[in-house]
Design goal:
Largest sheet: 4 strands, parallel
Number of domains: 1
CATH architecture: 3-Layer(aba) Sandwich
Strand order of the largest sheet: 3-2-6-7
Order of helices and strands: HEHEHHHHEEEHEHEHH
CATH superfamily: Uracil-DNA glycosylase-like domain
Strand content: 15-25%
Oligomer: single chain
Distance between the termini: 32 Å
Shape: globular
Structural class: alpha/beta
Helix content: 40-55%
Length: 248
C-alpha cells in the first residue's frame, strides 16, 4: 500500500479501509472485519482526524487481535463503542457493549493525560500524539463454543496462527511505513503474545527493542486488586519508551 496522503491519520484510515483477509481459516473459526461497515469506517476516520492529524512519528503499542466488543466493532484497538461516545466524543450507532481491556487502557490514557506536561492539550490528545494502539493481527476472530460465540486469539490454534502469519507480517510492515518509531515498541502481553511478537521481530527486524506489559484483560480479570501498581507500571514503561526515542 502506498502512503501518499499527507497525515499519519489519513494514511492510517486508508490502511484500515483496505484491510481484508484472503486465507482459508480452520473449521469453526471466523474472522471479524469491522471496516466493511460504513458506520465503523465513519468513526475510524473521525478518530484518525481527531488524534492523528499530523505527521508526527508514534511509538506503537501492540495487542493480540481485536475483540468482538471492542476493536472488532469500532475498528480501533482497545476502544469500545461506549468509550468512543463518552470519552472521544464521537457519536455512533455501534452499540452499547463495554470491554474490560478498553476500560483499563483508557483509564491509563486518562492518567497519562493527568501527568502530561503538555498543558495546552486536553483529553487523550497528549497520549495519541506520541503513541499508537494496534494489534499484531489487525483483524480478530471468533469461534462457536458450547452454544455461544467467543473471542479467539490467533495463537490459540497452530493452524490459525500459520494461516494468518503472512497477513500479520504484511500489515505490520504497512503500519511501520505509516510513521512508527523503529527503536522501540510496546507489547501488551507477557506470555504467548510476547513470544509471537519476538519471533516475528527476530526475523523481520521491525523494532530494536520490545517492552512487554501484562495484558489489560489479564489485569482486569485476575489482578484487579493490584490495579494501581499495574497502572504505574504502564506509565513508567511509556516514559521509558519516550526516553528511548528521545522525546522526554
Amino acid at each position: 500500500m502506498k502512503t501518499t496522503i499527507s497525515t499519519f491519520g489519513a494514511n492510517l484510515a486508508a490502511f484500515y479501509e483496505q484491510l481484508d483477509l484472503h486465507v482459508e481459516l480452520p473449521s469453526g473459526i471466523e474472522a471479524m472485519n469491522p471496516y466493511r461497515n460504513p458506520e465503523t469506517m465513519r468513526c475510524v476516520r473521525q478518530f484518525c482526524e481527531k488524534y492523528f492529524n499530523d505527521n508526527t512519528k508514534r511509538i506503537s503499542i501492540w495487542g493480540i487481535n481485536p475483540g468482538r466488543f471492542g476493536g472488532g466493532v469500532t475498528g480501533l484497538s482497545f476502544t469500545d463503542p461506549v468509550i468512543l461516545r463518552d470519552v472521544c466524543g464521537i457519536e455512533t450507532h455501534l452499540g452499547t457493549h463495554k470491554e474490560l481491556s478498553a476500560e483499563y487502557v483508557w483509564g491509563v490514557v486518562q492518567k497519562y493525560q493527568e501527568e502530561s506536561k503538555v498543558a495546552s492539550k486536553q483529553g487523550a490528545e497528549p497520549f495519541f500524539q506520541r503513541f499508537f494502539l494496534t494489534a499484531l493481527c489487525p483483524l480478530g476472530f471468533t469461534k462457536a463454543q458450547g452454544g455461544s460465540v467467543v473471542n479467539y486469539n490467533f495463537y490459540d490454534d497452530k493452524e490459525l496462527h500459520k494461516a494468518v502469519l503472512p497477513f500479520m507480517v504484511s500489515t505490520m510492515q504497512q503500519q511501520c511505513a505509516l510513521g512508527l518509531h523503529s527503536s522501540v515498541a510496546i507489547c501488551f502481553g507477557t506470555g504467548k503474545l510476547q513470544q509471537a511478537f519476538e519471533r516475528i521481530n527476530a526475523e523481520h527486524h521491525f523494532f530494536e527493542r520490545i517492552l512487554p506489559l501484562e495484558h489489560p484483560r489479564f489485569i482486569m480479570q485476575y489482578r484487579r486488586k493490584q490495579l494501581h501498581s499495574y497502572e504505574e507500571k504502564y506509565l513508567t514503561t511509556f516514559q521509558e519508551a519516550l526516553r528511548i526515542v528521545g522525546e522526554k
